[in-house]
Amino acid sequence: MKEKIFNNFSLKILSVLCAIVLWAVIVNIYDPTTSVTISNVNVELINAQSLTDKDYTYEVVDGSKISVYLSGPKSVITDIKSSDIVATADLSKISAFADYVDIDVKVVKDGKEVTGIEVTPRTTAVKLDIENRLTKEYTIETDTEGMPADGYVLTSVSVTPTTVKVTGPSSIVENIDKVKAVCDISGAYSNVNSTAKLTAYAADGSQINEEVFSFSKSDVDYTALISAHKIVNVRCAGTTGTVKDGYMIMGIELSTDKAELIGDVNTLNNISEIVIPESAINVDNIDSSRNYTVWLSDYISQDLKVKSENKLNIKVKVADLNSREFSFDTSKITFNNIKTGYHVTIDDDSVMSIVISGEGSVLDSISGDNIKGTTNLTALSAGRHTVFVNFTVPDGCKVVGEYKIQVLIEADKLQETTSAASN
Q1: Would you tell me which CATH number, out of the four given (3.40.50.300, 2.170.120.40, 3.40.50.720, 2.40.50.100), belongs to the domain 237-320?
Q2: Which residues on neighbouring strands pair with residue 118, listed in sequence order?
Q3: Where do transmembrane segments lie in this chain (predicted)?
Q4: How far is C-alpha 130 from the geometric centre of its chain's CA atoms?
Q5: pLDDT value at position 110?
Q6: Measured between alpha carbons, how far is 199 from 187 in angstroms, rounded to an integer?
Q7: What is the 3-state secondary structure (H, E, C) of 223-271?
Q8: DSSP for 379-396, written as a single string
Q9: Residue 401 pLDDT
Q10: What is the reported pTM?
Q11: What is the C-alpha separation between 154 and 177, in angstroms, rounded?
Q12: CB 181 within 8 A of CB 141
């Protein structure tokens, strides 16, 4: 038996080697080894709760998509698609002092892992940016988009809920200055009930990308109250009572002669003015000018509301019978203590009325030429200011009441040019 085995042994070895070579040749001809690189393979992060449970948040810096090198029999390799490649990164394996985790890659077809091939990721690890996770509550502010229909105005906007929690990386959440709900009221002529998307803003007004954090509620319900509106005149019908003997009413001044009303459209169509009745202004036995305060809402229908200033100030100017009203040209006012390099202009009418009391003969001799007006501008900077005017009148007379004008203080052109050149 032994002799048969070793008989022509070298020839037998040669035959085996030839068979192996022949098999390899046949395999390479009919199913050769080949390789391919597949790109844009998504890497799935698993066990993310191992970070989030510890109040960490993360962002993938690099490695979310990778290329994978495959090598093996052509019959197997050519049948593999990118969807067959399973790439995972196990976040539970990340170390305490690292910011990356290894990528594991395999090929799975029909639920089974394909073996006998080489699978190598070109990128071997996912790089992460890991931060402490922060949750912070913000009051929801409202803003509007669009305009109501003609003849209608927005009276108020409310949202439900009024607060929202924001969760994300501490560096992002701390940078949020406000959270807003933008409510659309375009073309509205009645109340609007809808939903609005929440948006976070930094202190400089820039919008913060919401992909890096999460709202506890991304949308809120809002109610926008829309009302018809109209601007009407305001007037005083007069006064009741009689001023003290020897005195007379020189005039009535209102703090405003217009008011904006909102409410029922039919009621608004039937009103053109608000009239303050005589009974509201009692001047009985007064001997000097007096201020009265009334509320416009007291003199309109309950179906309406005053959207503009509701309080109306009424000044009744009273002077003794030996008083007269004179016209004074405001261009003759002398401005004292103007800052060097500045000039003054008057915003009010060019003529103002002043009341002067005194002996009849003296009053008869007064003209605009012997009335002097001055005002003090000490410590006033550039801009608009309301200042008192002090009048000087002939002996034996006095000015009744106080008088103010609005002035505009501006830098001279030369000074502006010099300042710009120096900058």
Answers
A1: 2.170.120.40
A2: 71
A3: 9-30
A4: 31
A5: 85
A6: 23
A7: EEEEEEEEEEEEEECCCECCCCCCEEEEEEEECCCEEEEEECHHHHHCC
A8: T--SEEEEEE-EEE--TT
A9: 84
A10: 0.48
A11: 26
A12: yes
Strands (E), 304-382: 304-306, 311-320, 323-329, 334-336, 342-346, 351-358, 372-376
**CATH 2.170.120 matches 31-123:** yes
The residue among 395, 408, 415 whose CA lies nearest residue 335 is 408
* pLDDT-based confidence at residue 52 (cuts at 50, 70, 90): confident
Q: Which of 93-102, 234-243, 273-282, 348-357 has the lowest mean pLDDT?
A: 93-102
Residue 176 has pLDDT above 60, yes or no: yes
CA 72 to chain CA mean position, Å:
60
Q: Are strands 342-346 and 404-411 parallel, antiparallel or unpaired?
A: antiparallel
Res. 395: pLDDT tops 90: no
Structure tokens at 330: 């405001």
Q: In what order do the strands lie in the sheet with 334-336?
A: 334-336, 372-376, 390-392
- Decide if 391 contacts 399 (C-beta within 8 A): yes
Give residue for tokens 């890659």.
105
72 Cβ neighbours under 8 A, 6+ residues apart: 33, 34, 35, 116, 117, 118
421 pLDDT band, cuts 50/70/90, is: very low
Whether the pLDDT of residue 17 is over 80: the answer is: no
